[in-house]
Write a structure and sequence with these properties.
Keywords: FAD, Flavoprotein. The protein is of the alpha+beta class. It has three domains: about 5-45 and about 100-170 and about 270-350, FAD/NAD(P)-binding domain; about 175-265, Alpha-Beta Plaits (2-Layer Sandwich), CATH 3.30.70; about 400-490, Glutaredoxin (3-Layer(aba) Sandwich). The strands form eight sheets. Strands 1, 2, 8, 9, 10, 11, 21 and 22 form an eight-stranded mixed beta sheet that branches. A six-stranded mixed beta sheet has the order 25-24-27-26-30-31, covered by helices on one side. Strands 14-15-18-13-19 form a five-stranded antiparallel beta sheet, covered by helices on one side. A hairpin with a 4-residue loop joins β10 and β11. It is globular and about 75 Å long. The protein starts with a strand and ends with a helix. The model has no long low-confidence stretch (mean pLDDT about 90).
Length: about 500
């Protein structure tokens, strides 16, 4: 084992995405993963939201996921499905795709890049060593990283070793999820009774005309609410039988589990995302109820925000202070997810007063403005980083509009595949050619196919020029020769 510029602890979706981002930046990155291979027992999380699909499109790999998943309207809030089919995005939908497939596809992409994998190794401790961090492994060996990023889940050893606080709220409810065989077939779908919400379905399914059609055979995916907050230990088949009997009056002859796990509505967020050369991303930085299926998506987007910034700092083309913007931008996004998942848990409690509140919320979400606002939030399309006052695009995702360039037709996101900042000029061709800029900033002269539109905000004034960060967010908007471009290039595009 050797030294690396960055060591990522955890090879799930967040860690894989971060490794890919660092590799695109030319950084020597390594993943340490305790599993001996990329196989994941069971399916786990079940889909990708629209903004995550856009992020994958920015790297030119969205098609790999779309080829294997099921396109569907997956955004929802407190049991109300939120249709985004009229949203201004190339992906006005979500994608039903189990986590084991998401990980496999991401790992295939990362394998094409210069990333080192240490599989079958568990991290047991960290030691800061001046300009590096020592990573202690269970077998007694150790390696060093200039930076270490904990992508190792809610019980993150990296977070604990760094002494980063994890304040929040203890669980009030728990549920078991499993992939099993059943002698008797339950009614597939989502059900609610006095104990809570339960769901059944097969791992294999298709979405036909917006309706889920399950395979005739195969393992059954189960989610059943427990009548108590279960212990932190791994649940057994007997625990699952007891929970099914209490909730449904029968255990359906459950047997032969592939895996069984327990989740709760525990809600916590790291008060810092960084301590010196140690950083956190994904569930290591925030945990919450899985309501709305936002956790995996939140982690992948953490990685895309952090990757290019860490890459520039490691490459010496940006100041260390750039890493502080990772926390200032992503902490509020996760805090919002924590708030909306806590609200959803509260709204699905089975007492009559809560049901009444839920009915009021459902009625509100049936109205156009609330529907668009909540759908944009749940799908990740409304993320807005505070980059100051100015054009409505500033700090928001760049729309993937069609472009006409000298080289031929293209799209905005096609120019982000190599994770470089892009300065786009929509005015007189060549007018920005003399602007001093760092060598890695791509210059694109283009005409665009309008209109410019953002979820919730609607149509916005077309800009003359924009600086798009590698993560697809707009860092500067202005007129050719306007103010602020030099400073924006210096701060966001390694121009120090």
């Amino acid at each position: 084992m050797r030294d690396h510029a960055a060591v990522i602890v955890g090879g799930g979706p967040t860690g894989l995405m971060l490794a890919g981002e660092l590799a695109l930046a030319g950084v020597d990155a390594a993943i340490v993963e305790r599993r001996p291979n990329q196989e994941l027992a069971g399916a786990r999380a079940g889909g990708l939201h629209a903004r995550t699909l856009e992020v994958l499109d920015q790297r030119g790999i969205a098609g790999r996921f779309l080829a294997e998943g099921q396109v569907a309207q997956v955004a929802g809030f407190a049991g109300t499905r939120l249709d985004i089919s009229d949203f201004p995005t190339r992906h006005p939908y979500g994608l039903g795709l189990w986590q084991n497939h998401i990980e496999r596809i991401l790992a295939g992409w990362v394998a094409e890049l210069a990333v080192t994998f240490y599989r079958g190794h568990e991290v047991t401790g960290l030691v800061e060593e001046g300009a590096a961090v020592g990573v202690q492994l269970q077998d007694g060996r150790r390696l060093r990283g200039g930076y270490v990023v904990g992508c190792d889940g809610g019980r993150s050893l990296v977070r604990k070793a760094a002494g980063i606080g994890f304040p929040g709220w203890d669980p009030t409810t728990s549920a078991l999820i499993a992939e099993v065989e059943m002698t008797d077939q339950p009614e597939f779908g989502v059900h609610q009774n006095a104990l809570g919400i339960h769901s059944f379905g097969r791992r294999e399914y298709q979405v036909v005309d917006g309706r889920v059609v399950y395979a005739d055979s195969g393992p059954v995916a189960v989610m059943v609410t427990e009548g108590h907050v279960g212990p932190a230990t791994e649940p057994s088949l007997d625990d699952l039988r007891a929970a099914l009997t209490a909730a449904c009056g029968t255990d359906y002859g459950v047997h032969s589990p592939t895996w069984i796990s327990r989740f709760t509505d525990m809600t916590r967020q790291a008060n810092e995302y960084r301590k010196g050369r140690i950083l956190l991303a994904g569930d290591a930085a925030h945990v919450h109820s899985p309501d709305g299926g936002q956790g995996l998506n939140l982690g992948v987007q953490d990685a895309v925000n952090l990757g290019w910034k860490l890459g520039q700092v490691i490459n010496g083309t940006a100041p260390d202070a750039l890493l502080d913007t990772y926390r200032s931008e992503r902490h509020p996004v996760a805090a919002r997810v924590l708030r909306n998942t806590m609200a959803q848990v509260a709204l699905r409690r089975p007492d009559p007063r809560t049901r009444a509140a839920g009915e009021v919320v459902s009625e509100l979400l049936g109205m156009e403005e609330p529907r668009r606002r909540f759908a944009a939030m749940q799908s990740g399309l409304d993320v807005h980083y505070d980059l100051g006052e100015g054009h409505p695009l500033l700090g928001r995702r760049m729309p993937d509009v069609d472009l006409d360039t000298r080289e031929g037709p293209s799209t905005v996101y096609s120019h982000l595949h190599d994770a470089r900042p892009v300065l786009m000029n929509f005015g007189e061709r060549g007018s920005l050619g003399k602007v001093p800029r760092p060598s890695q900033v791509k210059l694109v002269d283009a005409r665009y196919g309008g209109p410019w539109e953002l979820p919730v905000l609607g149509h916005v004034r077309a800009p003359e020029a924009v600086l798009v960060r590698p993560d697809g967010y707009v860092a500067w908007v202005g007129d050719v020769g306007g103010d602020g471009l030099k400073d924006a290039l210096a701060w966001w595009s390694a121009g120090q």
